[in-house]
Amino acid sequence: MSEPAKDAGKNAPKKFLYVNRKAPYGTIYALEALEVVLIGAAFDQDVSLAFLDDGVFQLFKGQDTKGIGMKGFSNTYRALGDYGVTKFYVEKESLQSRGLSVDDLQAITYEDEDDEYKEKPSIIVVSRSELADVMAKQDVILSF
Amino acid sequence: MKFSILVNEGPYTHQASDTALHFTKAALAKGHKVSRVFFYNDGVNVGSRLTVPPQDDRNVQKAWSELAEAHKLDLVVCVAAAQRRGILDESEAKRHGKGEGSANLAPGFRISGLGQLIEMGVESDRLVVFGD
């Protein structure tokens, strides 16, 4: 990360990355991270999400929480596009080591207002080294 | 440099709130600013005045309260995370009908929303996260 520019305008958006490393249930990290993302979306910053380690399970499709008596929140990820959160970086190595592929994840899309509101995928599968490059470009990284 | 600090784990089970305290002290000693410390996840438990650690152990809440007083630090506990875990100030305790004297927010801490976390990320040069 480079030194922050001294004359950076107060209104220039910063690049925020939320790093999701934990399974959706078992601990509260995924849910409380999502609550930060939802509030943060109102601040007009440049927001990205990263999913790695067991965090890739947060996007697993067909989740059913009835058996554990908890409120499911996996649908909320699909609504984030409407809040301008459209970059979901998923680490390939984390998927592979858990026997998963992108087909095991729920489809998440957004409407690109700069391209005639075409529906585009939000999920971007990246290698570990590509994710490192994404992280290196951020101003603020919040890790959960 | 202007730092802001995020504490995501509670005291004693995890070292994160101790390490954040040491980092904050070191930054201030070097002449840096610490614009805000935000407590989230189990980190909100640092803000309970009811913890009673053994006398020969450090008192994490007290150390933060004293540092806040000495340096006019802004210690913010997330309201939603705090309510889940039973950390209440006077007005929250009253609002939720918890009875007189049940407020347990420690001196030097205040309860506010997640917007304060995003705001400190926007306004500081570096946001440093202490967690698991």
Mind explaining what this structure looks like?
The complex is a heterodimer of chains A (144) and B (132). Chain A is of the alpha/beta class and 144 residues long. Chain A is built from 4 helices and 7 strands; from the N terminus they run βαβαβαβββαβ. Chain A has helices at residues 29-40, 74-79, 92-97, 128-136; strands at 15-20, 46-51, 88-91, 109-112, 118-121, 123-126, 140-143. The longest helix of chain A has 12 residues, at 29-40. Chain A is globular. In chain B, strands 4-3-2-1-5 form a 5-stranded parallel sheet, with helices on both faces. In chain B, helix 1 runs parallel beside helix 2 (60-71). The two termini of chain B are 25 Å apart. Classes of the chains: A alpha/beta (144), B alpha/beta (132). The interface between A and B is medium-sized, with 19 and 18 residues.
Going by helix content, strand content and strand pairing, the class of chain A is alpha/beta
Task: Report the C-alpha radius of gyration of chain B, rounded.
Answer: 14 Å
CATH evolutionary superfamily of chain B = DsrEFH-like
The profile of the biggest β sheet of chain A is: 5 strands, parallel
CATH topology assignment of chain B:
Hypothetical Protein Ychn, Chain: A
CATH superfamily of chain A: DsrEFH-like
The H-and-E topology of chain A, N to C, reads as EHEHEHEEEHE
- The level of helicity of chain B is 25-40%
Top-tier CATH class of chain B: Alpha Beta
What percent of residues of chain A are in strands? 15-25%
Number of domains of chain B: 1
Return the CATH architecture of chain B: 3-Layer(aba) Sandwich
